[in-house]
Amino acid sequence: MYAAAFDYVRASSWSEAVDLLGELGEDAHVIAGGQSLVPMMMLRLAAPTALIDLAGADQRTIELRDGQLVLSALVRHADIEHSEVVAEHVPMLTEAVRQIGNVRVRQRGTIGGSLAHGEATAELPSVALAHKATVQVLGPDGERTIPAGELAVTHLTTSLAPAEVITAVQVPVLAAGQGSCFVELARRAGDFAMVDVAALLTCAGDGRLTGARLVVGAVGHRPADMSEAAQPLLGQPLDDAPVDEVARTVADEVQVGPSTHAGVAYRRQMVAVLVGRALRRAGAAALCARHPERA
Amino acid sequence: MATEAPPRPARTPSGRTSRVPHRDFVEKVAGTLPYADDWGFPGMLHGVVVRAHVPCALITSIDTEAARQVQGVRAVLTAADIPHNVIAEEASGLGIDQIVQPVLAIDRVRYDGEPIAIIAAETPGAAVDAAALVEIEYEDADGVFDTEAALRDGAPAVHPGGNRYVTWRSAIGDVDEAMARADHVVDETYQTPRVDHAYLEPEAGVGWVDSDGVITLRVSTQVIEHARQLADILQLPHSRVRVIAAYMGGGFGGKEDMTVEPYLAALVWKTRRPVRMVWERQESLLARQKRHPFHMHYRTGVTDDGTIVAQDITIVGDAGAYPLLSSRVLFAGAVNSTGPYRCADARVESVAVFTNTVPTSAMRGFGAMQVVFGYESQMDRIAEQVGLDPATVRERNFVERGDLRVTGEEIDTEPATRECMRRVLEELGEPGQPTNGGRVGRGFACSMQPYGRSVFFADRASCWIGLEQDGTMVIRAGVTDLGAGQAASLADIAGEILGVTVDRTSVHIGDSALNPLTGGTFATRQLYMSGNATVKVARGLRSKLAPVASDLLGCESSELEFAENRVAVASDPSRSISMAELSRTAEARSVMPYCHDTFDAETGEFDPSTGRGRSYPDYTHGAHAVEVEVDEQTGAVRILRYIACHDVGRAIDMQRVVGQIQGAVAQGVGYAMSEEVEINEGVMSSTLFANYLMPTSVDLPDIDAIALELYLGKGPFGARGIGEPPIGPCAPALASAIHDAVGVRMRRLPMTPERVLTALRQPDGPRRPGS
Amino acid sequence: MTAVSKQPISLQVNGRATDAWVSPNLSLLELLRVEAGAPEVKLGCGEGVCGTCTVLLDGEPVNACLMFAVQANGCEVTTVRGLAPDGELHLLQQAFLDHAGAQCGFCTPGMILTSKWYLDRHPDADREELRRALAGNLCRCTGYTKILDAVEAYRDVCRREHDGD
């Protein structure tokens, strides 16, 4: 359990972090919570020559601003888990972070770190994609915004350029009439996910579904946006909607790669099961949001 | 000998919960107990093992030059540097040829992770850096990676002499004739997995050369007697190697064979400096011995009323690349394969087969637990065949005292399987409700598992007990403590006889140079052996001191009562002396206040050519009942209730007995539901601990453990061993409950959600109970 | 291979100031066990999943094996020994003793710290909530039942003391 030697510096701001990344070269790496990076270093699967500690680069703020939840990249999973603002406005995030690792991992792991690391079985990339979140990025050429759908490239690879860092995450909050659900299948609580599904449904005043976002994660090398396949749900109340058919279609179409804990066929079946469950729970939540007295 | 446990005298410690706890437990909660790695020396070197990363190959060259150049490296050893490069395991004790397992591989690799070199360096980082620079060149060699492939004609041989390592055969009566007479024959095969001990404390130790030049290791180990093997490896006299056992952070059989010892000893011997070695968890998962996967074929013949008339059993165990304790594990599987059921016509064949995979060896249950899944699954199928309920079928067949086992030996203590089964079924009560939309089912299983080492081993344990001048008591016994109170039990037992309280007792454990040897902590033998040794020595000391006490007190020896650190006249307790006074007076009269003796276990003969003779000294019987909820969409199984009942004869400490049952059940549940070390073509699918699916707190309900004290066993005060037996019934009890819930019978462990779902979706479909 | 210069760090361990010169790649676990005289913090897996390296860092539980010592510069670390500064067992430790919550004891420091941390924040947690709170602390010896007995007993003792105020 001995990481290779490296230089260590602390960044006191995002811009300093970017400057340091430029100075220290392409084998330098930023570290926030380290719950993904450090195990790799300890197992000698990663050997950065320098670590730039982001701990003091920003506050861990969660703010509601213009219909979006804006989270500093340094916000920890535990902060999200215990945040009332998040629970009220982006409950999918609350559901998802509860699935992450264990209590110690959640104390250190950050949302920025999770999205930047790009682990295929991670929960937050699915949530980000379902909510059409965007990440704020700072690099040597300045700031830019990356939509979640363009961030994850493949397992452990994102579209971030070498000296770029995620500084914040912006998540559109649930509007009235919207309901969401995140479900995951793992062998034990906190284990790497075998399948995860993030569903966000929009429901009109008369109970008809008018919008569907559906993401299936952990089965491919990045979360898959399957919202197209959910379109047949629209135009009718959830009870009349072809949920099981949609679930089967999604399961048939989504790319499923190998996993340590279960075969491909089983996981594909579980995609159908979880999509069905997620859609029904999201639909119930949407209806409740539209008609709170039916809660 | 009375078979019922006598009513308990008022002053015994059993069952009391508010009592002085033994020192090691206080230190554990305080965080002050020093484990093997919590100990060091100034200038200590750090050792690592360099391992092969191919499962089967010839080694064409090993280049250590670059490794030696790393700053801080003090030694790099390969096979040629080891004086006697052999890990010698005692074989079965029956003269079976030994296969040579090298300490460091010479010219071939037989499993992924096999040790090839060892390095000692000034810092752990330097050692790891150097290990990465050892260059090993391989030439491909064909291997075999499962027992089926290994047993085929012309299969590549793991060792000269072929892949069939040892075969045990036992038979009683005429099984073919009896099977032909049977009204029904239930014919099934069962498969159990390769699993890991997964103790929380990694393999670790520190070695040094002491002021007398004795190579001394302080290690996390179940067996200090390995000192002799270490001496042989280094070609030193046995008296020049000493092994001290630290309190272990778990063992379960995984520290019964040597782990770090030979590598640590070699580096100490070479450098003459203190050396520390701790294995990484991933290294342990990759390369440290596992439990034997068993493939079991059962043919059971029964009459229409469910009486067993014939049993024909074949067991194939995967021994991995080297024997270690395989012959004994397959022996245990063989002689326990018929379970607690009478059968006058039975045959069993049990074979250990080599493959190019990580060697398999001892693990809690040791062959006798795998077969519980076989024989209990058979009982449920028999019940279904003949249309009787599973409890009735078992009652019809339970062994009684005096019945013969497949080896021809007689059961000579009273079995309590019936009582345990009835108790758990009673406790199960009314069926529960689903908590999560699944289907609820209930099941149970019984078992009979041995405690104590095979009797043809001439097992023995010694002990020394003495009184200090202030009346405090010292016990010296070479026991090793794996957290089940091995040390504490000796204090309790001696205290019950000599009346010295636990807070005035010191137990010195596990030191091959300073303590009388007791044999290792395995085979659920420690309480039986060192406990009985402690009884013998404590009684011996009491007898030795009695004349002095009776002289001081003016009474007969028979009137003496030893209690609460004093000796009193039973009929007049106001006449008493302290243990301090007794000790000093005795010494003044040259009656030295200590005693040393040996307990010899009953012995017996076993003839491998006929498969007849005595196997184990005794057995612990039990039954478990469970309630589960099966998610029919995912195959996931949630355990709602778990009840385990065993007859322990006599509990030295009831709280510890209950703890042992609960802990064994937890391991049994992991074995049944989720744990598996998967190896494909000799390569492990993952060596991450995150991927080794042992149960967490949320994977288990509260475990209701019931320890009955019904029929005396052969341990101290009539105790029966409890460390291993509760691990056996878990898998079949859960399989039985799953069948009750969703109508499928699982034949393979672990019963993962995927396997349960696959079974549910078979073309012939599940059969609902009652359909 | 370049030699990386050591850095000075300063932290509190169970209230004691601990200063050290460390290579950045020294883990917090190693610092605590070797430099800070706290071998009660264990190495069980090195992956952050077993919980034997649990320490409270500025009051929150973290994996000491997945942090570098330099990251903990300026922080307060509490280990299980920090609960019994005068050598007298903390009530939670006593509860583990009374209810046989420790067998081999290797998971015990992590179990105790995590239970205490959780109950400090959720003093009315019920048994199932406590079971979930300890899901990240593995035990191979006890089957968890007696650990939960001990933690519940401690919770009840705290309630009685609280109610008695």
Describe this structure in words.
The complex is a heterotrimer of chains A (295), B (771) and C (165). Chain A contains 10 helices and 14 strands. Chain A is an alpha+beta fold. Chain A has 3 domains: 7-53, 2-Layer Sandwich (Uridine Diphospho-n-acetylenolpyruvylglucosamine Reductase, domain 2), CATH 3.30.43; 62-172, Uridine Diphospho-n-acetylenolpyruvylglucosamine Reductase, domain 3 (2-Layer Sandwich); 178-290, Enolase-like, domain 1, CATH 3.30.390. In chain A, strands 4-5-10-6-7 form a 5-stranded antiparallel sheet. Chain B has 771 residues and is of the alpha+beta class. Chain B has 3 domains: 23-33 and 460-600, Aldehyde oxidase/xanthine dehydrogenase, molybdopterin binding domain (Aldehyde Oxidoreductase, domain 4); 45-141 and 202-247 and 255-287, Aldehyde Oxidoreductase, domain 3 (Alpha-Beta Complex); 290-454 and 607-760, Aldehyde Oxidoreductase, domain 4 (2-Layer Sandwich), CATH 3.30.365.10. Chain B contains 18 helices and 32 strands. A 7-stranded mixed sheet of chain B has the order 3-5-1-12-9-10-11, with helices on both faces. Chain B has a 5-stranded mixed sheet with strand order 7-16-15-14-8, with helices on both faces. A 4-stranded mixed sheet of chain B has the order 18-28-29-32, with helices on both faces. In chain B, a hairpin with a 6-residue loop joins strand 28 and strand 29. In chain B, helix 10 (370-386) crosses helix 11 (390-397), helix 10 packs parallel to helix 17 and helix 13 runs parallel beside helix 14 (526-553). A 5-stranded mixed sheet of chain C has the order 2-1-5-3-4, sandwiched between helices. Chain C has helices spanning 28-35, 91-98, 108-121, 127-133, 145-164, and strands at 7-13, 16-22, 54-57, 60-63, 76-78. Chain C is 35% helix and 15% strand. In chain C, 61% of the residues are buried. Chain C has 165 residues and is an alpha+beta fold. The mean pLDDT of chain C is 95.
